[in-house]
Amino acid sequence: MKVVTPVQMREIDSYTINKVGIPGIVLMENAAVRVTDEILKDYGSLVNKNIVLLAGKGNNGGDAFAIARHLCNKGANTVVFILAAKKDISGDARINLDILENMGVETVEVLEGNDLTDMEKRLERADLVVDGIFGTGLKGGVKGFRGNVIKLVNQKNKPVIAVDIPSGVDGETGEIEGECIKAYKTVTFGYPKFGHFLHPGCEFVGELVVADISIPDSVAQNFDIKSYVTDKETVSRLIPGRKADSNKGDYGRVLIITGSTGMTGAGCLAGTASLRSGTGLLYLGVPKTLSFIYECNLTEAVTLPLEDENKGFLTKECIPMLLEYMEKMDAVAIGPGLSTKEDVEDVVFSVVENCKVPMVIDADGLNLISRNLPVLKKARAPVVLTPHPGEMARLTGLSIGEIQKRRVGTAREFSEKWGVTTVLKGAKTVVASYDGRVFINPTGNSGMSTGGTGDVLTGIIASFIGQGLDPVDAAVAGVYLHGLCGDRVANVKGEHGLVAGDLAEEIPYAIKSLI
């Protein structure tokens, strides 16, 4: 599903109105009908239901005026509080306001300095509140008397349905400055916006409904939209298939380069995840003094002991043998539990420069790459990086705060600059391709904020690459599956006690649910 910025949506609306010829008033009417349909779905009969609508002076307010008309016609007791002077309302919004007043529907101006006592009384009796104060174009947050109105609405703890986006959420970044409506449901139009999915705004959206208001599908083709929200249907199509007449060699040879003293669990988790995702042959390149640990814990994997000079981490003497092993692989992952000591840097750089198959770099691999980013330009095959915000900060030189405020932009810019696929982990993980495409992942939960879950993700992505998926598709499908496993486990065990091993063991069941 495409996801757009508020600017892109305005351009799509303008093209629909001015080029296709669908009047704006028709789009507004369609939006009002769709919101009304959602209210009817939730409430059934609206006869004698008390509904308070909040309207701004723009088109979002115009939607609210049109919604009020439909609710009134369904028997609801409606009042519209307009957080602007009526004389300042124009265009399609004005038309719908005039219709309301001609019908005798109660509309009340609420301006700065007005007493909110009447509004408070109406809110106390309300069965539902409709938020049409601000749309997706809001910048700078909501303060002053409008902020006081929103605070009052939230204090009353009434169900709120938001028109397009909860007032207070930045439609592009998801940021919130000042007050913000807390909705149980948001009905947006045409395409979802980034603010619906990015934190903290996504926490105020509630259930998101993307309503068709008759914008032709062909209109979006006139705009360079390269951003998507990953959905189940897309991932179901991407999951590698299985053939009855096949053998282990048909499902990929995956090499995971991992391991150092005290960090062997990372490789075990990545390896288990890779096998559970369908890998035919898994190889673990590990320090030879630690190889027995992997052999005891992953009996299905082939262990490749590499020179570590009894140090418990890889030394550069292992490079020739490692490069030889890589020649036989379909995918390589490097980094989980690797350490950043002494020669490990040389090992990582040699792998990046010489690997001829797609590669996933995670954890300490990323930390070492951050010391010499130009090595990415020497890669001979596609590279997928899977940083969490702290690792991304080391890769970019930005603060974690800066990254979290611009997750999509940061990931996209990094990928385009260095020619890689970036998986920026965290709530609503972002997958950015070197060609400018961006995918926002909707699955996952806070229970996954625990050690080892990133290693599981590395194993999944590497497995999908080994089974023949394009690295970008492997990252998109892998991230979705990873989050789905977390959601399935949390549904049974809750979020508090979820551990990374739970995710790895859930993978086959989650895949089965997708296919």
Overview of this protein structure:
The protein is α/β, with parallel strands linked by helices and 515 residues long. The protein is built from 18 helices and 17 strands. The chain has helices at 6-20, 24-43, 59-73, 91-103, 117-125, 144-156, 232-238, 264-276, 291-297, 319-326, 344-354, 364-369, 389-396, 400-405, 407-418, 453-466, 471-493, 500-514, and strands spanning 50-55, 77-82, 106-109, 128-132, 160-163, 185-189, 207-211, 227-229, 253-257, 281-287, 302-306, 331-334, 359-361, 383-385, 421-424, 430-432, 438-440. Strands 8-17-16-15-14-13-12-9-10-11 form a ten-stranded mixed beta sheet, sandwiched between helices. Helix 2 crosses helix 3, helix 8 packs parallel to helix 18 (500-514) and helix 17 crosses helix 18 (500-514). The longest helix has 23 residues, at 471-493. The radius of gyration is 27 Å and the shape is elongated.
Helix and strand topology:
Layout: H1 6-20, H2 24-43, E1 50-55, H3 59-73, E2 77-82, H4 91-103, E3 106-109, H5 117-125, E4 128-132, H6 144-156, E5 160-163, E6 185-189, E7 207-211, E8 227-229, H7 232-238, E9 253-257, H8 264-276, E10 281-287, H9 291-297, E11 302-306, H10 319-326, E12 331-334, H11 344-354, E13 359-361, H12 364-369, E14 383-385, H13 389-396, H14 400-405, H15 407-418, E15 421-424, E16 430-432, E17 438-440, H16 453-466, H17 471-493, H18 500-514
Parallel strand pairs: 1-2, 1-4, 2-3, 4-5, 5-6, 6-7, 8-17, 9-10, 9-12, 10-11, 12-13, 13-14, 14-15
Antiparallel strand pairs: 15-16, 16-17
